[in-house]
Amino acid sequence: MSKQTVLMTSVGAYLPANVVTNEDLSAYVDTSDEWIQRRTGITQRHFVADGETTADLASHAANQALANAAMQPKDIDLIIVATTTPDNTFPSTATKVQHQIGATGAIAFDVQAVCAGFIYAVDVAEAMLRGGRGRRALVIGAESFSKLLDWQDRTTCVLFGDGAGAVILEITDEASDWGIRSSVLHADGAHRDILYVDGGPSSTNDVGHVRMEGKEVFRHAVEKLAAVMDEALAAADMQPQDIDWLVPHQANIRIIDAMQKKMQLPSEKVIRTVAAHANTSAASIPLALATAVGDGRVQNGDLLAMEAIGGGLVWGAALVKFGRPS
Ligand code: UT7
Question: Given ligand 1 and candidates 218, 223, 253, which is best to mutate, with the most ligand atoms within 8 Å of its CB?
Answer without folding.
Answer: 218
